[in-house]
Design a protein that fits this description.
60% of the residues lie in helices and 5% in strands. A three-stranded antiparallel β-sheet has the order 2-1-3, with helices on one face. The mean pLDDT is 92. Among the domains are: 3-160, no CATH class; 299-393, no CATH class. It is mainly alpha-helical.
């Protein structure tokens, strides 16, 4: 057994134990509610090198913001001019983009190239037939082929939301494939801005993901807080292509940072599958004292807001349950307690770390009682509990989802 496969197998038991505890080991059930397929209204001719396309990741690498209708149009034209084997691959991708998942599996049942089989694997994921156990088996069967590792991380992120393990798998993949883009996104997820900047520069040198690089550069500038004329040029690039969900969400993120929140409703209505935008909207609503619809959120954002609501209600048990969910997703994390800059705010845990005075950092563990910790902090500082606030240190999970992009989000959620 090769070294990388041994490392993956070592993780399998730990992951499946965590999934069993979370009740997520079984495959996700298909929902009965009708799902509206996302069809962009803008038109743009896709720019693709057909000979280099084996799956949807290859399409995104070449033309990230090309709408599906333009991509399928180009693939259909190309399918008429290539040999049978290539035509089958292109037809499978067309069916995948059209959400005709049974056809994808039928066409590729005799294929053995993991880069091509990725389409069938995703079809099974999108139709809610994939499990973590099966994704692990694919990794074993392909001797931990980079594409199988990439897919395994996709299952852990979207199907199970276990980011600590997905991070380990993606790190193995990124090193094996020497993928500067994934290394950049992992660095952004971990908050390593210097490493992210180095990998972003590498992407530019190699000409990787040219149509998405302005998005990555824009987000990097926002996270570093750098005041630069570059941010305006990147913003204009994204604004000209704001029909692309990730671009629209990034622009909205910037506006929210600047205190402008009016676009949140429009973006979440237009792109209901964008969990990043839905979370932004929910957090801003709670800041205003309005109760958001947390059922539209990913499990991490839902747990974070549940902690805030539970603390406001004095519900120690509920807060503890939500903290346990975060521990399962991330393995470990920290919470800062401090004196709130604002007195008598209705909901705690929504402010920035910089607004907490005299912060105390606590490593969170199982059975952690946040409300009790806040009481103890208030007593030690000789202040009212109402003046104590908290901040949860968590990686930004959106950078994990960005490894796969809007075409996956629009089909999975």
């Amino acid at each position: 057994m090769n070294e990388k496969l041994a490392a993956i197998m070592k993780l399998r038991k730990a992951i499946e134990e965590d999934l069993e505890k979370m009740g997520k080991l079984r495959r996700r059930k298909k929902t009965e509610k009708e799902r509206t397929r996302f069809v962009p209204k803008y038109i743009k001719t896709a720019t693709l090198k057909i000979s280099q396309i084996r799956n949807v990741r290859d399409i995104d690498a070449q033309d990230y913001d090309a709408p599906d209708v333009s991509v399928t149009s180009e693939l259909k034209k190309a399918a008429l001019k290539v040999e049978v084997a290539r035509r089958i691959v292109l037809q499978a991708i067309i069916h995948l983009l059209n959400e005709e998942y049974d056809e994808v599996s039928r066409l590729l049942m005799d294929m053995d190239d993991p880069s091509i089989l990725y389409n069938a694997w995703e079809a099974e994921l999108f139709s809610k037939g994939m499990t973590s156990s099966k994704a692990f088996e694919l990794a074993v069967k392909t001797a931990a082929h980079p594409q199988a590792l990439l897919f395994l991380s996709e299952v852990l992120i979207f199907q199970h939301e276990i980011y600590s393990h997905a991070h380990k798998i993606l790190s193995v993949y990124a090193n094996e494939a020497d993928d500067a883009r994934v290394k950049f996104l992992l660095a952004m997820y971990s908050g390593d801005k210097k490493e992210a900047g180095d990998r972003l520069s590498e992407m530019v040198r190699k000409g990787m993901y040219k149509s998405a690089t302005p998005l990555y550069a824009f987000l990097h500038l926002l996270e570093t807080g750098e005041k630069s004329g570059k941010i305006e040029s990147f913003r204009n690039y994204l604004k000209a292509r704001k029909e692309t969900p990730c671009f629209a969400a990034a622009l909205t993120y910037h506006k929210v940072q600047m205190g402008e929140k009016k676009d949140l409703c429009e973006v979440t209505q237009k792109y209901p599958f964008c969990k990043f935008a839905c979370a932004m909207k929910a957090f801003e609503e709670l800041k205003e004292g309005d109760m958001p619809n947390i059922e539209t959120l990913d499990e991490v954002s839902k747990a974070r807001l549940c902690i805030t609501i539970a603390i406001a209600e004095g519900n120690e048990s509920k807060a503890g349950e939500c903290i346990e969910k975060l521990l399962k997703s991330f393995g470990s994390f920290k919470i800062a307690l401090g004196i709130s800059t604002y007195k008598d705010i209705p909901f705690k845990g929504l402010d920035t770390l910089s607004n907490l005075r005299v912060p105390k950092i606590i490593e969170v563990h199982e059975k952690f009682d946040l409300l009790e910790a806040m009481r103890n902090y208030a007593k030690s500082m000789d202040i009212s509990l109402n003046n104590v606030d908290f901040y949860i240190f968590l990686p930004n999970i959106e950078y994990m989802r960005l490894v796969f992009g809007w075409r996956v989000c629009s089909r999975f959620y």
